[in-house]
Amino acid sequence: MSSDYQALALVQKEINxxxxxxxxxxxxxxxxxxxDYRHVCGVILGLNLANDIINDxxxxxxxx
Length: 64
Hints:
Layout: H1 3-27, H2 34-63
């Protein structure tokens, strides 16, 4: 595995860890208000989008 792929894998691992932490926050009912809930859901959405971008980049690298 090249260093580029290793770096992307590390970024994805960190994204997944952050996402799991936010999902646990939501599922445990720790959001104090609806605004907190919406904010954390937005963060999860952003992390999912970042992960999708990395997956697309890896596919492009494999095709080149």
